[in-house]
């Protein structure tokens, strides 16, 4: 497509000569036939060295660049539209059950459902219209999936769990496994039965290798539109509100409550039985051990308001210098004390 066509597609404005573009590439490796993008002004100096045919940039970016620019309100959002236009979507399998799949006669598959090879669907399962169940998927008895869900290879939905419409589980995601609950009895660990379920509302995405435990009793619930990255752990009886995002390797201990519109950075951990209120931001690798008020940004371990946390880090970085100064002062003081009067 021409850069001018892409600019119209994303509601942007082409600045510079038009060019024919056929792929998307990072700034460093892009050639004359590639579109690239700059999401952060922090890396604007790379615009002077790229060979890209055009670059998606923010409308208000001011930087030196000798390449054509497509100015848009949000380069990252525009990139998503461009990728759909330049690259064909993943092929979807035709409706029907693969001959190597095992589907219990008591399962109910909606119109247009596709089931891949080596998948097992147990008795009482209900799957809505147009859902795609990939290879080697397991769906336990009495589980319910809505319409247009997509379960990628190796994903698991355990017994009685419920998925809304358009839920997507990437490879090896697990919904409804037993939580980590054990009681110490007579010197040994006794497993506590988990009889609740896990519920994923409409438009939830669960990344590859992520796990969402079923409740001990009641529900573990993931709100509408929430996006969960790869390798995230959600323990039993947690509740996550709508439109929240959790980055890779975040971990929620049991009965954690996360509000709506919360952003959780990678490797952040939650101690359990705490509430993170709506719109909060949790910095990467933070350890959250108490409630977080709505709309606040916390960081560090233990998590603190980010200005306080960054101030402490700055002070920590100065410790070697402060230590040297204290030792110097101690030596000078000792010299003064040793002098005869």
Overall pLDDT: 93
Q: Class by helix and strand content?
A: alpha/beta
State the strand order across the main sheet.
6-9-12-15-18-23-26-29-32-35-37-38
Number of helices: 4
Strand content: 25-35%
Which geometry do the CA atoms define?
flat
Overview in brief:
The protein is of the alpha/beta class and 341 residues long.
Tell me what you see in this structure.
The chain is α/β, with parallel strands linked by helices and 341 residues long. It folds into three domains: 84 residues, MurE/MurF, N-terminal domain (Udp-n-acetylmuramoylalanyl-d-glutamate--2,6- Diaminopimelate Ligase, Chain: A, domain 1, 3-Layer(aba) Sandwich); 212 residues, 3 Solenoid (UDP N-Acetylglucosamine Acyltransferase, domain 1), CATH 2.160.10; 29 residues. Helices cover 15% and strands 28% of the residues. The strands form five sheets. The protein has a twelve-stranded mixed sheet, with helices on one face. A ten-stranded parallel sheet has the order 7-10-13-16-19-24-27-30-33-36, with no helix packed on it. A hairpin with a 4-residue loop joins strand 37 and strand 38.
Based on the model shown, name its key terms:
single chain, about 350 residues, UDP N-Acetylglucosamine Acyltransferase, domain 1, 3 domains, twelve-stranded mixed β-sheet, 38 strands
